[in-house]
Amino acid sequence: MKRKQLEKRLRIAGCYLKREGSSHSLWINPKTGVIEAIPRHTEIKEPLAKKILKSLNAD
């Protein structure tokens, strides 16, 4: 999955970017308070993308 596509799905679910790191971006779901690190690659493998979406309740 493309990183832009993943970020779009997270924004639709109400998540937002908390901060940028050197190799990861931290996204937070304000409803649950869960924070998840997303790697800063253009392509993110499907299993990892699904795990991130599930963790942030954005699936």
Quote the beta fraction.
25-35%
> What is the mean pLDDT?
95
Nearest-angstrom radius of gyration? 10 Å
In total, how many beta strands? 3
Structural class: alpha+beta
Which shape, going by the Cα principal axes?
globular
Write a compact overview of the structure shown.
The chain has 59 residues and is of the alpha+beta class. The chain has helices spanning 3-12, 46-55; strands at residues 16-20, 24-29, 34-39.
Report on the architecture of this protein.
By secondary structure, this protein is an alpha+beta fold. It is 34% helix and 29% strand. The chain has a 3-stranded antiparallel sheet, with no helix packed on it. β2 and β3 form a beta hairpin. The longest helix is centred in the N-terminal third of the chain and has 10 residues. The protein starts with a helix and ends with a helix. The model has no long low-confidence stretch (mean pLDDT 95).
List strands and helices in order, with pairings.
Elements: H1 3-12, E1 16-20, E2 24-29, E3 34-39, H2 46-55
Antiparallel strand pairs: 1-2, 2-3
Features:
three-stranded antiparallel sheet; alpha+beta; 29% strand; 59 residues
